[in-house]
Amino acid sequence: MPTVPTHSVPRRMTANVAGACFVGTLGGLLFGFDLAVISGAIDDLQAFYALDANGKGWAAACALIGCMIGAATAGRLADAVGRKPVLLGTAVLFAISAVGSGWAERITPFAYPSDFHWFIFYRWIGGCAMGAAAGIAPIYVAEIGPARHRGTLVTFYQLAIVIGVITAQLSNYAIDVGLDRDQWRWMFTAEAPLAVLFFVALLAVPESPRWLAARGQHEKALAILSKTEGNGALAREEFSRIEASLAGERKSRLSDVLRPEMRLVMVIGLVFGIGSQMTGMTAVLTFAPSIFAQIGGRFASPLFQTVLLGCINFACTFIPLLLIDRVGRKKILFAGLGVMAVALTGLGVLAGSRAPSGPAVLVLLLVSIGAYAASIASVTWVMLSEIFPNRIRGVAMSVANLSLWFTAYLTTRFFPVVNEAFGLHVMFFLFAAVCVLIIAFVVAFVPETKGRSLEEIEQLLVKPRVTPFRR
Q1: Residues 144, 34 share a domain
Q2: How far lies 247's CA from each of 37, 213, 224, 390, in Å?
C-alpha cells in the first residue's frame, strides 16, 4: 500500500489541468460530430449518387473501417512522436474529411461528377481521425491529469462525444431548414471550423509528462507535473513513480502485449473494448427508428422517440462524471450493467410477444440507454486509459480500441440481418446475457482503480500469473 504523503494535496483541479484536458476532450466532440453527421445527409447522398440499399449502407458504415485503421496505427505513432503531434494530425484529418466529404468531386483532381468512390475515400480519412482520437485523447487526458481527478477528466471525453452527436444533429437540422440546395454538402463542411479550433487550441497545451519522461526529457516532464499537480512536492513524488515504472524498460513492440505478465491487463482491455459494443447499445441507437416502427406501436413518432433516446443518453452521461471518482469504477459498472440486463430482458419478452406495449418498449429502451451512458459507455474509456503500463500504453490502447471498433462494425452491420433471421427478442436476450457476463468478469478479475496512480495500477495488474481479484 502506498504511503500517504505528509504534504498538502490540492483538492481543486488546477487551471493548467482543466485547460489541457478540455482541449483533449475536443477530440471527443469531433468524434461524436463525425459519427452522427451522416444520419442527416444519408437520404440526399443516396439520391445524389443513385445508391441502392447496399450502397446506402456502405455510405453510412464506411467511416468505421477508417476508425479501425486509425485505432490500429495511432498508438504506436503516439508512442514514437508524442501524444500532442498525433492529436494535431487528427485535427488536420478531420478538416480534410469535412470539406472533402461534402465537395469530393469538385475539389479532387480527376474526379468525375457523382464519383462515389472519392466520397468513401474522404469518409475513410475522417474515420481514421475518429479512431486515432478515440485512442489517444483519453490517454493524453489520463496522463496529464492527477490521479485524484483522472476518472472525472476522462469521463469528460465520453460527455464530449455525446455533445458532438447532439451538435451534429442540431447542425443538420439548421442547415436543412436554412438552405435550399446542397444541404448535405454543408452538413459535412460544418465540421471544419471545429477541427480548426481543435488544432489551434492544441498548440497551447503541453505534451504528456509521462511520454516526455519515457523519452528522457526529465526537466520538461517535471515542469509540466509541477503545473498539473499544483504542488512541487506532489510533482516530484509523481515523477519518482513514473521513473520507477519506466526503469529498465525498452521501446515497446506489438509483441510486448502478448508477454505473459501482460496477459491479465490485455484481457481486461479487450473485454471492455468488445463488451461495451456487444451490449448492443450502439446498434440500438443506430437502428432506433426501425426498432420503434417494429415493436414500438403508434402512440408516438419513431423519430420523436429516437430524439428522446438521444436526450437520455446525454443526461445520463453526467452521472459517472459526478460519481466515478467518489464511488469508484466497479460500483458504477455493477449498477449500470445490472439495470441494463433487467431492462434488455424485459425488451426481449416484449419483442417476443404478439402485441408489445409501445409505451413499455419506450420506457425500457430509455432505461437501457440511460444505464449504458451512466456506466460502461463512460467507464470503458476511463479503464482503457489507465490500466495499461506506461511504456506500452499507446500500443495496448490501439489493440483494445481496434477490438472496440471492429465489434461496433460487426454489431451495426449485422443487426438487421440477425433481426430478420431470428427476431428482435433474440438480440435483446443476447445483449442482456453479455451484460451479466461482463459483471461476472469484473467481479473476478478487475481491481478498483479509483484514486490510484497509473504506476500503482500497473503494479496491481502486470503480474506473471493471472490471479482473480476478490476485492
Answers
A1: yes
A2: 45, 11, 20, 11
Q: 146 and 39 in one domain?
A: yes
> Which among 111, 119, 132, 116 has a CA at the least distance from the CA of 66?
132
Nearest alpha-carbon partner for 215 in 85, 304, 303: 85
Among 36, 85, 52, 18, residue whose Cα is nearest residue 187 = 36
For residues 305 and 343, give the distance between their C-alpha atoms in angstroms, rounded to a whole number.
17
Asked if the structure places residue 238 within a domain, the reply is no
Q: How many helices (H) and strands (E) does the chain have?
A: 21, 0
User: Whole domain around residue 28: which residue ranges?
Assistant: 14-205
- Nearest residue to 98 via CA among 197, 187, 200, 202: 187
Task: Please indicate, yes or no, if residue 70 is contained in any of the structural domains.
Answer: yes
Q: Are residue 376 and residue 278 in the same domain, yes or no?
A: yes
Q: Are both 300 and 410 inside the same structural domain? A: yes
Cell numbers that stand for 188 in this block: 459535412
**Closest to 104 (Cα-Cα) out of 53, 45, 52:** 45
Q: Is residue 245 part of a domain?
A: no
**C-alpha–C-alpha distance, residues 368 and 347, integer Å:** 9
pLDDT tens digits for range 315-335: 898 888 788 888 889 999 999
Which residues have CB under 8 Å from 129's CB, separation 6+? 30, 34, 66, 70, 90, 91, 93, 94, 97
Pick the closest to residue 140 from 126, 127, 128, 157 (CA basis): 157
Helix (H) or strand (E) segment spanning residue 24? helix 15-49
| Residue 62 CA: distances (Å) to CA of 9, 66, 192, 422 | 48, 7, 20, 26
**pLDDT digit string, tens, across residues 349-408:** 998 887 777 788 889 999 999 999 999 988 897 888 788 887 777 678 778 878 888 888
Q: Are residues 111 and 257 in the same domain?
A: no
**Are residues 117 and 183 located together in one domain of the fold?**
yes
Helix (H) or strand (E) holding 71, with range, is helix 53-81
Query: Residue 113 is part of a domain; what is its CATH number?
Result: 1.20.1250.20
Which cell goes with 157? 471525453
- Is 338 in the same domain as 271? yes
Q: Return d(Cα 142, Cα 396) in angstroms, integer.
A: 15
Give the count of domains, the chain.
2
Over residues 422-444, the pLDDT tens digits come to: 888 999 999 999 999 999 999 99
Give the number of C-alpha atoms closer than 13 A to the C-alpha of residue 333, restricted to the C-beta side: 27
Q: Which residue has the cell 455525446?
A: 162
Task: Please check whether residue 88 lies inside any domain of the structure.
Answer: yes
> What are the start-end ranges of the E strands in 301-395?
none
